[in-house]
UniProtKB/TrEMBL annotation:
Source species of the chain: Brevibacterium linens
Pfam families, per the entry: baeRF_family2
Region called Disordered, residue ranges: 142-164
Domain of life, source organism: Bacteria
Matches recorded under InterPro entries: Bact_RF_family2
Protein name per UniProt: eRF1 domain-containing protein
Amino acid sequence: MNHNHLRTVVESGGPYATVYLEGRTPSADADTQLRLRWSELRDQLSESGAEESLLESIDAIILADEPTEVHTDGRTIVANSQGVLLDEHWDAALGEGDSAHYGEAPELGAFLRQECRQFDVVLVIAGQDGAAIRELSVTPDRERTEKESVHVTGDNDEDINKPRRGAYSHNQIRRRVDEIIKDNARSVADFVDRLITDHPSDALVLAGEVQGRTAVKAELSARAEEMLHEISEGGDEDEGAEEAIDVAIRTLVTRLAEEREAENSERLGESKAHGRAVEGRAEVEKAVERGAAAVLLLDDAEASAGEAEIVSAAILSSAEIGLSHDPMSDGIAAILRYDVGAALAD
């Protein structure tokens, strides 16, 4: 994955304070809990040498008007003498703990591991009257976040369930209903195509009742079909179906994350066989600093020694960053832009 959006953070220069606040269960005393949590981390940063002005800039984020949101959603915050450089939700699983770091490089490893497992999903819950469409950001083991649902239907405002009287035959009524369903499906497909064009997504999930799904699927563009995953769960207003959809999406995202890591491992193996990859801190650090790394691979679970500095250099050199589940020397590796000899030559 490309992480050029973090370039401005790394280019700003250290020292940096990096703060991770895990998301916790909402509570009536969230404000008090958050203040106590931040107070402990603040003291750690101060003892490590962080200036008061830097800490005050983080105060303004954490001790905001809506402390419950920070308490429940979690936060990744990076700041230096210029102020806060990064303020993002960090949906750490309960129990991973809060942490604070102060050093010449921002500690972005935990944040990047979450980003690498995060998938942008367009969810379409189809029915005969159109579809509810939602944009989701999902990780295998975190709470999903989503934008407000949009209901898309066709231009025809005729109710397909409305009783029809008069000279209409049964076949005429059936044809008219089919025309309305097709019109609705075409509008949904057009909306989806615009959405994935304007906001590139990792997956398109089609749920809902069978006839609605079938109609929408028939109208999807080739690009939408390439990223399509169809699930049998559905029913936009059915609480049980909502839970089933959530489980199905998490299952899908877990598989996609595993496939992404497997692809990284396979690519690393192939690159090593052709002399275009290195493992271990010393060689990876050298390759990254020289701009020779095309992809930096991190262990999917544990941070390696000196990781923060290597990650910063990788971001500055526009290297992609990904995860690997397979063992790597020192828990870190790099796929190179060219052969090892040229990359590491003195």
